[in-house]
Amino acid sequence: MNEHTATVAGVAVDTRHWIGGARVGSPSTFTDVSPIDGRALAGVARGSSFEAGAAVAAAKAAFPGWAATPRAERARVLHAIADGVQKRSEDLAQVETLDNGSLLRSHRRGVMPRVAHNFRFFADRLLALSLDDFTTPPKGPGPVNHVSWDPAGPCVLITPWNAPLMLATWKVAPALAAGNTVVLKPAEWSPLTASLLADIAADAGLPPGVLNVVQGYGSEAGAALVAHPDVCRIGFTGSVPTARRIAASAAGHLTPLSLELGGKSPLLVFADADLDLAVDLAVEQYDNAGQVCLAATRLLVEESVATEFTSRFVAKAARLRQGDPRDEATDIGPLVHPAQLEKVDGFVRRAVASGARALLGGTPNTELGGTYYRPTLLTDVAQDSEIVQEEVFGPVLTLQTFADEDEALALANGTRFGLAATVVASDDERARRVTAALVAGTVWVNCFFVRDLRAPFGGSRASGIGREGGTWSFDFFCDVKNTVTAPGS
Ligand code: NAI
Ligand code: MG
């Protein structure tokens, strides 16, 4: 233990940066708090352009060695990291819960297994793809095309607070598998599990400098990282305004970007839908207190079933248990930070002031202390209103009705976003027609949040640039090269 080590849920977390295989402090720190009770958890190194530069230099120095490491060896190290994640999954779950207020039971059952799987998946995918072994079948005596996926170089990965370790490893794993080196900058509201990941990766034998973690407050370290000329890829998940700043900065060096941004996704309930399923899927949108980019926050329900759907939905949602996220019985925990609570409450207040009606919730849950916001459903909302058009990132859903398919699609597609959409309908023909016309990176039919890591993931329109998952991640993280060899060579 030393001044840089915080004990969080009984777990020792070093809150300095991890650069070139060593812990490095900064002259100042920022305070990381727990949204459960507002308690200070740790003082975290406050990175600046100085640490950003040092981390990129470390990633650059480590790149040739890691890029030249045989793929089987890279895959072995990634599996060893997954083993380490599994071994420490309870520590990771406890720390993540305290840090950002997400449910402990979700971490235990779903998130931490997925974190390990992110590494295993991309390790196996790397080998299965036989990167650089693809040769087009020669037609007759012509030249042979040989496509290779070459490692690109140091990557900067900037990640948000809503699913900190899951979203970080979703980028870190393919970047490392591809043979790149990484500087990870976690969000300042949830910096701790990234630091534990650095320990796990080092224990797994990942060479120094291959994964670096720079902590930072707001844009301080992040802006310096994305502007750095030696950075070959930028992967970002977060908000649209920050994405704009990053893209503008990346333009200076034409650094390729992958952006996974917000959403305002619709859930369409048609009259022929299984209403119990529709209600279950709609209530699921309150998961993680609504702090999910994919959340279908706009419930669009066919008029003829709207009354029935709404009463069943309100009855079910009213039974959700709000409370301490460490309690296994809790369904909805706190929002990540007092500032997020204020932001969410501001959206709801402005909506109500302009005519929206709360059928459920509509206020912070002050009985619990902390940053709890009641699950909320707002109706009487206009399509062009702020509450329908802007991402709230809290447990706030809107309800609109439609008369027919055309109106349903006009509402569904009527925002600047295009991350996901969910359709609940029994008529297969209708489901096919509607899904074909929806603008979204992912469309779910009679299900929600089902992810196969081989499938592409990303957003249309303002929801992002590029796709992650499967081959798409490798296409982004590699320099794809085509070598044409003359016949007979
Ligand atoms: P943000 O987009 O500002 O922050 C995300 C990350 O970017 C953090 O690590 C932050 O430190 C970093 N960052 C901030 N400014 C930067 C800059 N100029 N250059 C490089 N990096 C920079 O998100 P924030 O403020 O935490 O959340 C605001 C809203 O963003 C939320 O209310 C929600 O609507 C949306 N959001 C969307 C997410 C998604 O999954 N798509 C995740 C988190 C937030
Ligand atoms: Mg925190």
Helix amount: 25-40%
Considering the protein shown, what is the CATH homologous superfamily of the largest domain?
Answer: Aldehyde Dehydrogenase, Chain A, domain 1
Strand coverage percent: 15-25%
- Estimate the mean pLDDT confidence: 96
Strand arrangement in the largest pleated sheet? 16-17-18-15-14-19-20
For the record, the CATH architecture of the largest domain stands as: 3-Layer(aba) Sandwich
Note the main sheet: 7 strands, mixed
Low-confidence segments: none
Hetero groups bound? 1,4-dihydronicotinamide adenine dinucleotide, magnesium ion
Could you tell me the CATH topology label of the largest domain. Answer: Aldehyde Dehydrogenase, Chain A, domain 1
CATH class of the largest domain: Alpha Beta
The computed structural class is alpha/beta
Task: Give the termini distance in whole angstroms.
Answer: 62 Å
Number of helical stretches of at least 4 residues: 15
Shape category: globular
Question: Your description of this structure?
Answer:
Helix content is about 40%, strand content about 20%. It has about 500 residues and is α/β, with parallel strands linked by helices. It folds into two domains: about 280 residues, Aldehyde Dehydrogenase, Chain A, domain 1; about 190 residues, 3-Layer(aba) Sandwich (Aldehyde Dehydrogenase, Chain A, domain 2). A seven-stranded mixed beta sheet has the order 16-17-18-15-14-19-20, with helices on both faces. Strands 11-10-9-12-13-21 form a six-stranded mixed beta sheet, with helices on both faces. α1 packs across α7 and α4 packs parallel to α5. The longest helix is centred in the first third of the chain and has 26 residues. The chain is globular, with a radius of gyration of 23 Å. The relative contact order is 0.13. It binds 1,4-dihydronicotinamide adenine dinucleotide (NAI) and magnesium ion (MG). The site of magnesium ion has 7 residues, from β5 and α3.
